[in-house]
Each structure stands twice: as structure tokens, then as C-alpha cells.
């Protein structure tokens, strides 16, 4: 860009910013060294830092021409920082609700945009900003804040995770689980403004192609309204004594303030650290497994050829792996098999199409269908290949996978995972992930945490007492079903009871349980057998049926349910005319408080290990780095010369739930147990197994 062109851009920016108090307050552009120094001074004088980045895509490690990010390299195009001044805030110099008085300044920093004067030194400029945020000690705030922290870390090496204090996406989900959490939608709804989606920045490379001034105005609105929403949520969640006496809604919102402080925001900070560190991938292992799975897939094709004389031809190879158009291949095979009488249509979707889920196929495989057997083998191999190929695409230049753990998107409060979804990683594939040199991996998983939480929530005396004695609940239920002593129960009988304990916990019908047992546990039951398990479950665990009825009744009365610590889920579908929606909402009335609370326990345990849990009496476990969480399991990377002592300490912290529940006014009388293991690969417990005594340290 020429000097003349740059002067035109700067002139346009200054003109656009002059007197701009709506819709997002005053704007200052950062064009050079002196402007950057002024920004640094403003950061140190601010009350907090609300920062948002516009990037070339979603992959902070993407390389030019790579498989991710649309082929665009990872670059931070522009940074927007809204900086409410601490002195002005203390003096009450402005009123954010009415737009009266002085508004906080928003600083716009053009970085890798083609029109940016900082283009040649954008990483250095961003590193200075990140470093000064850390030095200032000021809280870092944003919507989906992990994204911005990850990009700063990946592109500059500056770690902002310790400065993270508030994520408005997460607080939006806490305040109203049914409202859409997208910033622009919330701002339009809460403040009576129009949405400002003028262009699609989700398309890779779009931020570099948008006019710089337009991009800056867009970004300024993002940070300004993020600040306003954060202030609004804090005002709702953190009540003062002047507002007493509280009504029931005020009390519930105050409980949500504690959930935000002691669970949700520490989780965001913890997972930012997890994502930044990432999980090391054994690329050679992955390639070997790809060859193995591709051979199994092709064998399934050959078996079909033997059955029907035709099979799909392999598609061109990708990364040395032959592929097939699975959906086309699938339908063609199904049609052949139905015509030959090897498959029967036994279930249909709501739209009337034949249903071929895993449960249907397993049932026909057990009846001796060679077509169902071949199809299941092909599906399993194809799914595995999809997982493995995605890992190769998503690794960074050091072969590290930085999965994204989504907070604030699941209504119950549970985490989801993407890019890749490690929560769906099969046990057979976990060994693909290994520790860094000089380290080992610890696996700690909560034993039967949903059942333990359900016992606590339902107040089922027999279940609580069984856990307090340390009994095996699956063996007890199996003994009840079979009419024999617990010590005489077979492994198959225990497996059937295990399916019953987990499947019937939330009010599943006998028919639904029959299908669940086949799909989830590979247990084939007649309807009569399923009914017998159903009856035994409610006889064994007295109080469970009463809890179901009580929870549903209260949900209909209130329109929402709460977990033991106050996390709320609204259930408007309870009143739907659709029986499918209303019955689904009834199930949520039961499982949401249990699954959500179980997830909260796991997240708080991880935060205690990583040193991000406020009020917890112990610091971070030195040397411990959480690298993955999968529902009730935490995987931790630790130095190999200290793994025994760290394993013992992490187990203690995971079981010490009443210590970190105390600020939330909740104490459990059901023991929480964590099973500890250690190994040289994920899921490989070649150093220690949870069935062995803990190592002596």
C-alpha cells in the first residue's frame, strides 16, 4: 500500500471515529508506535479489558494452502478493545444503561489487514497488547473468550488464560438456557438495537477482504456490546443488600452468580489452558491404524461382492487411503439386501423412511443376516477412518491436537467437544494420543457419578446407603433380578443390571429400555425380560419413582428445573402440543439436574488441579496439565519422575467435592470415587491400573 493510500485510509478512519458515540461510543484507531503506547497506557488505566479479534478463519495454526481454514494461513486481522476507565467507573461518571454521559473508549488495532500500517509487524503489535494485558492485572472479558486467548497464544506465545474473568456466551446460557446466546442477537434484544451483521466473517479469509473501516466499526460494536451484556448479567446475578428482601427469582439469580463465579468461569479458564497445551498425536500409529481400517472396509466390500456379485469401486485415494461414497454405497447395498431378503425394514423414521440405526442392524445381525453383519463392519471401519483422517488434518505443525471444548452451548451445562470430538473417541483409538517426552498420562474417572448424583438428588435411601457401604450397585440389582446372592451373579447378569441402572434412571419405558440395552450395552432382551428389569429397578431403589413424579410436577409448575447448586434449565417444551417435545422435556426435567451437576463436579475438580478454582485452599498441582476431559474422565499429562505422587494428589482432589462445593451452599452425603490409572498412552494403563492399590509415595 502506498503512503497516499494509507493516508486516505487513516483520514477515513479518523472521520468515521470523530464524535462517534452511537451505536458503540467513541473510537480511536491505532496506526503506529505512538498510538500503541497510548493504548498501553489506557489498558493499565482501565477497569477491565474487553477484547475481540477478527481472524482469517477458525484454525489458529492453519498454514497457507492447508486442509483447514479454507487454505488461508492463520492471521489476526484486527483487534478491538473496549476499555471502561476505572476512575470514571468509580466516580459514576457514566450510565451504561441510558447512554447518558461518557462512554468507554474502544481502540481499533489493524493488524494483518492489507490496509494496515502495522501489517509488517502485526504479531509484534499483538504480542505487546497481550503482554500489557497480563502486566496490568486487569480482567479479560469477551464472548467465546477461549477463541481469542487461543489465537493470541498460538500467534504470539502470550498466555492470557490467567486474566480471563468473564465470558458473556457462558453467562447468557446461565441466565436463560432457551435464549440464543449469539452476541448480536442478545444485544438487539436487550438494548433495542438492530443487528449489525453486515457481512459474513465466518468465511475463511473474509476479514482480510472487507473494507478496513467497515471491519473496525463491526468489531467495535462487538466489544462495546459485550461489555454492556457483561454489566447487565453481573447486575442480575450479583445482588446487593439494598435489594432485599429477595423474591424467589432474585434468589435464583443470586445462586446463578455463584455458579458463574465458582463453576462456569473457572471452567472457561481451565479449558483455555487445556486447549492451548493440546494433546500430542502419534502420527505413525494413526497411519498404521488407517491401513488396518481401510483393509477391514475393503473386506466388507468383498463380502458384499460375494453375496450379490456387485460392490462399489474404490474412489481415488486421499492421503493413501481409499474411500467410498458411503451414503450412495450404503443405500445401494441396502436395496440389494432387501431385494434378496437379507434385510427387513423393522423401523421407520418420523418422515416414513426406513430406519437403519445401529440397534436395528445389530438385531438383524444376531438373527444371522450376512448383509447386516457386512454393513456394520463397513460402517464401523468408515467411521473410524473419518476420525483418523480428521486428526491428521487438525494437528498443528508439532503434531499436537488442540480440540475445542464448548462451554455454554449445552443446556444442562455439560461440555461438548469439536475439532475433533475427543469425547466420542473409541477406546480402541485412544492410544493414538501420547504424552510429551519425559511425561506419562494419568487417567482419573469418576465411578458411577450419574448414579451417585441421582442418589443424592432423589434421596433414595437404599441407593445412598449402598454407596456409603461401598457396594456394587450393578451386582445388587442383578441379584434382585436373578433371585440369588450378589456374590453368585454372573458377568452377563451384572451387565444387564448395569444397563438397567443407567437406562432406567430417567424414567425410560420397558420398550425404550429394550432398545437402549441392545444399542448401548450389546444386551439382547425380550420385552418380558426388559419389563422384569424395569420392575426390579424401582423395587430395589425405593424413592426413585417418587423423585421422577415430584420432579415432573415441579417442572410443570415452574417451567424450569434446578441442579443442587442452582444451575437452571428452562423447559418450555413441557407445554408443547407435540407429545414428542413434551415427553422429551419431561426426560430433561430428570436428567438435566443430574447430568449437569455431575459435569459441574468434574469441571470443578479439573479447575482445582489446574489452580483456577477461586476459594479452593490448595494451589495448582505442580507439574499436572489436563490434556483431555471426556464426561466423567480427566486425562492429565505429568512428569514421569513424579507421576505416583501426582496421581495420589489428583485422586484426592477429585474426591474432595465438599471442599469446592462449600461456597455453593451444597454438601453431599454420597461419596464420590475417582478411579486412578497411569500409562504411556491414553487408555493404556501399563504403569498403574485403578484396580491396583495406589502407589506408595
Gist?
Helix content is 50%, strand content 12%. The chain is an alpha+beta fold and 697 residues long. A hairpin with a 4-residue loop joins strand 4 (94-95) and strand 5.
Throw out a few tags for this protein.
697 residues; alpha+beta; Taq DNA Polymerase, Chain T, domain 4; DNA polymerase, domain 1; 4-stranded antiparallel sheet; 19 strands; globular
Structure, explained:
The chain is an alpha+beta fold and 697 residues long. Among the domains are: 3-237, Ribonuclease H-like superfamily/Ribonuclease H (Nucleotidyltransferase, domain 5, 2-Layer Sandwich); 283-396, Taq DNA Polymerase, Chain T, domain 4 (Up-down Bundle), CATH 1.20.1060; 458-593, Orthogonal Bundle (DNA polymerase, domain 1), CATH 1.10.150.20. Helices cover 50% and strands 12% of the residues. The protein is built from 24 helices and 19 strands. It has a 6-stranded mixed β-sheet, with helices on both faces. Strands 17-18-14-19 form a 4-stranded antiparallel β-sheet. Strands 10-9-13 form a 3-stranded antiparallel β-sheet, with no helix packed on it. Helix 6 crosses helix 9. The radius of gyration is 28 Å and the shape is globular.
